[in-house]
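Crash report, auto-generated. Payload:
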Amino acid sequence: MDIWKTAWRNVLRSRRRTFVTVSAMSFALWVMILYSGLVAGYLRDMEQNILDLEIGDLQVHAGDYRDDPSLYARIDDPEALMAPLRARGYRASSRLLAWGLAAGEESSAGVSFRGLDVAADADVSRIHEHVFAGSWLDPGEPHGVVIGRRLARMLGVEPGAEIVVLSQGADGATAADLFEVRGVLQSVGDATDRAGVFMTAGAFRELFVVPDGVHQIVVRRPVDAELEVAATAVAALAPGLDVQTWRDIMPTLASLLDSARGAIVAMFFIVYLAIAVLILNAMLMAVFERIRELGVLKALGVGPAGILGLMLAEAGILTAMAVVIGVALGIPTLWYLAVEGIELTGIAGMSMLGVAMDPVWRAELSLAAVFPPIGALVAIVALAVLYPSLKAAWIDPVRAIYHR
Amino acid sequence: MPPREPIVELTRVSKVYRQGKLEVYALRDLSLEIEAGEFTAVCGPSGSGKTTLLNVIGALDRPTSGTIRIEGQDLGEMGQRERSHLRRDRIGFVFQAYNLMPVLSAYENAEMVLSLQGVEPEVRRKQVMRVLTEVGLEGLEERRPDELSGGQQQRVAIARAIVSQPAVVLADEPTANLDSVTAIHLLDIMEKLYRERGVTFLFSTHDPRVMERARRLIRVVDGQIESDDRREDDRGAP
Ligand SMILES: Nc1ncnc2c1ncn2[C@@H]1O[C@H](COP(=O)(O)OP(=O)(O)O)[C@@H](O)[C@H]1O
Ligand SMILES: [Mg+2]
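Recovered output after restart:
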């Protein structure tokens, strides 16, 4: 007996049941492929935004910076690290960091100053693309600063306005100066929105009397380098320095992204549970309807393995049909959602956990988005057909043949 | 003439069904021998134990007590797997109805036991075509069971039962669902196979016109053999 031929003909014989089960499975798979692609895309964009706008992949600080983030905890020779990194395909840029006060016409606020190497920073960050009003820093205009959106609102300033900044320089004296607001950023993230004041490295050094060294080096890894591998590679080039991945820096967010990805898989099983019940029922019906046939097969000497094979082959064919249809529908839809995306412009300045989101929600079209829904479907179908198939395999031929 | 070893040998076989406190003896202390080349009918009223008898002989069911030997092998000492192989290799089955796989053609149904045995496709083809011709189904090989009459379906079942040359073909009321003309025709075919090929048949029936055709008639009542008659003209045959 040719198991596949027989199974295939059984599938064709019960056309209605085949139609119902295959449609339901295909539909569920299609929905789960879209769901998986959309959530994966959302999480990917969210992760990418944090890395692009806030922290980069890796950050390097002086060994004592984390314990005491002061003006004095500097990396003395940043080029000694950045040059070899760039030679290895990494992108890197240094930043100077300090805290202080800023005052506008209406009020003042605590702020975080960030002195950037404007040209190199564009390599590691896309924050310069996120100016809401005015323009980004210009190395030729050292007295221009770009500030966070909520800070601008708090201070009551717009591009063109002046702010007074106040802090303490490395020489111990008061650091105070007048700056012009060149630009106000879009919402990029809580910390930056509320307190970010970006200035050129030159202006920072002058204001805080820091002639050399930097506080932070932001590193972006090559696309093919795993995060942990990159961290190890960077650490090897940075003796005595403190290398952290973005996951070390934002552990809550990292674990949140991880569990959100895990939740996608959990969702498959919840949705597929309905499919499992349907399949279980369909296969039980198949066993019940054919109980005499199965009894005769056993009488003729077909063993349990043969019957099991027959039932599994039948479920396998149904599943294969559903996978073909589900994927044939799912990939083009997902492709559309990945390229065109869903417009979310109605919800302006959307942010999630202090991270700004793009106004267009794009799905991720990748094997990682498409395979798990298929794998979960196959797994759950296998579980659902096991009971009816084993029941059929161990059927007693006498009771089956004379079944009334 | 040396004594022939019986193909089927039942010694004091009982089969008891318990229904609550009630014990129903489907077979009661029954002993019986069937030799190669016999054409035997088991008759008796409904509920007398015919089906049970054929099922225990065919290793489909286990008796409550007593021993059954097929070609000398004790069925009681065999496991599920061995019994399954014995059925496949040494016993042909024809049931009253629903014999055939509805999705397979007459040819594929008849071929089934041979492919289970792993017989080479070319050998299979030759043997299947031959038996289908012998049961008068040439030209209908590709038909599905639902495209065949009841008599034709039973002929496919007989073809399937004899194609692997089993020791004995067990047929439980093979004509019960057929009209009398078709039933007699089926008997003609069985008789021809018995005479020309020496196929050993053991079939049950409660149709007097079918009983008439048997060379040996075993009458079962209440699970016991009431009479066991051999026809004169069978002596010394094949
Ligand atoms: N599975 C069963 N459970 C209980 N009693 C049964 C079962 N199968 C058969 N019997 C009983 O055994 C007796 C013989 O049945 P059966 O062999 O089918 O007789 P026949 O084939 O001659 O009609 C009957 O009394 C029947 O009711
Ligand atoms: Mg019966």
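Post-recovery validation: DSSP finds 14 helices and 14 strands in chain A.
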